[in-house]
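Per reviewer request, we include the raw input and output of the structure prediction for the construct analysed in the revised manuscript.
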Amino acid sequence: MMWLILVPNITIFALYFFSMQLLVFILVYPALWFVSILPYRLFYLLSDFFFFLVYHVVGYRKKVVYDNLKLVFPEKEESEILRIQKDFFKHMCDMFLEMVKTMNLSKEQVKKRYVISNIELVKEIEKTNSILVLCAHYANWEWNVSINNYTESKGYAVYQKIGNDYFDKWIKRLRERWNTTLITQQQTVKTVMRNMRDGITCSYGMVSDQSPQAHRAQYWTEFMGVNVPVFNGAENMARKMNLAVVFLKVSKVKRGYYKADFIPITLSGRETKENEITDKFLQLTEHQIREKPEHYLWSHKRWKHRKKNKRKLK
């Protein structure tokens, strides 16, 4: 008879949970919408204000950012480390507000602010093969999904599901305006297989510089001079399904303006050696970071597992 007691309690909890999610969405959404319609001058003044709060008042993850920079740039002077740290927080505030700006950013507007120099490369590859587009947490990766405004094939972006279901559905609707369908990591392989079976050529975008759990890592290698575990799921899928792979290099030209370039990694995943795609991606990401380090996501604990590779430490 225990289930007769549990079912009503579970139902009440579920109703309470989703009602709280809805309440948060109702309270937060108007503020986000208001920020999204601000003129750019006021918009970036607001970003400056948030920078003051985050950096000088709250000190959000300042130690994490500082430790990461000291770890990967041991040759840099203290003054340079602090300069990069400060510039990173300025960029981070710009970037997250620009994500909000997406709410009222049309295709025409984003094409002026996110320019792709060699989209013809992708269009040419798409004539014969689907493409895996790899990028890092660099510049404004949120606007990377706008590349599907330039292509004729269907575009997918692999994303992390948001805990609040209402915000999750809202984000999906926003991306659909830019011809992008969001799929979770668990849905990716099935989606690729289904499209291949139907003979549909597509592009699949992934942010691939995250840090996996150390005990589950299948591959360890150097990234920014430090031995760390890396994800190789993107490479495994590209080699198994013979996808073309390109690296999306994005540069911040100035506030609110970005330039993107596609760099080919392989036209045939099946013809690459083991770890070749992963290594090339990391090399391109590292080169991008060293050019303008302040535009990388240093608040992420990317190197937290560096001391846990027992094979390396023996």
